[in-house]
Design goal:
CATH superfamily of the largest domain: Impact, N-terminal domain
Radius of gyration: 23 Å
Strand order of the largest sheet: 2-3-6-4-5
CATH class of the largest domain: Alpha Beta
Shape: elongated
Strand content: 35-45%
CATH architecture of the largest domain: 2-Layer Sandwich
CATH topology of the largest domain: Ribosomal Protein S5, domain 2
Structural class: alpha+beta
Helix content: 25-40%
Length: about 210
């Protein structure tokens, strides 16, 4: 795991297919920011592919407090969910759910065969999804005049926020929504408070 406030999530949805002794395994990777979102992806996969033999899964959400769950979904205990979770842990990602759907091909794989099949499928799906680095942050809402908007944007850039961290809406007034890394939150608050006192900012708050 990246240190401090940094962590990794899947970069995108991914789907891969593998075959083991005529059984077809399809691994799908979803981004999930909460237990409920993870379980909704699991429910959706089970509904979409209701004719499959098994829908085994694992998920890992939250940072730095991480919640992990897995299910063998009818396969022998320890042969499916745990290998899927193991693949997630080796990929060093959070906010992820992996569902591996199996269509039984008529030949039993045995305990070791199932562990290898589910683990391999999950690992390949995670590799296909890739990963992106993220930083824990607080979201700041800032309202200011057109006159002072560029100054505030420059100050935020000087503070260390990238252009992609700040969403700007130019309406009757200018509103800025900034994802402020926790390491910069104190400096950003001081900046906002100072500019609010000077009348450059109409109002601001942490969302």
């Amino acid at each position: 795991m990246a240190g401090g406030d940094e962590f990794f999530e899947p970069a995108s949805f991914a789907e891969v297919e593998t075959r083991h002794k005529r059984s077809i395994f399809t691994g799908r990777v979803f981004l999930a920011g909460s237990d409920e979102e993870a379980r909704e992806h699991i429910r959706d996969a089970s509904r979409r592919y209701a004719d499959a033999t098994h829908h085994c899964w694992a998920y890992r959400v939250g940072f730095p407090r991480t919640t992990e769950y897995y299910s063998d979904a009818g396969e022998p205990s320890g042969t499916a969910g745990k290998p899927i979770l193991g693949a997630i842990l080796r990929s060093d990602v959070v906010n992820v759910v992996v569902v591996v759907t199996r269509y039984f091909g008529g030949t039993k794989l045995g305990v070791r065969g199932l562990i290898e099949a589910y683990g391999e499928c999950a690992a390949l799906a995670l590799e296909a999804a890739g990963r992106r680095g993220r930083v824990r942050s607080r979201e700041a809402f800032v309202e200011c005049s057109y006159e002072h908007a560029q100054l505030i944007l420059r100050q935020l850039a000087d503070l260390g926020l990238s252009e992609g961290d700040v969403e700007t809406h130019w309406e009757a007034t200018v509103t800025l929504t900034a994802a402020v890394p926790l390491s910069l939150a104190e400096g950003a608050a001081s900046l906002f408070e100072n500019y609010e006192k000077r009348g450059f900012i109409t109002r601001w708050k942490w969302k």
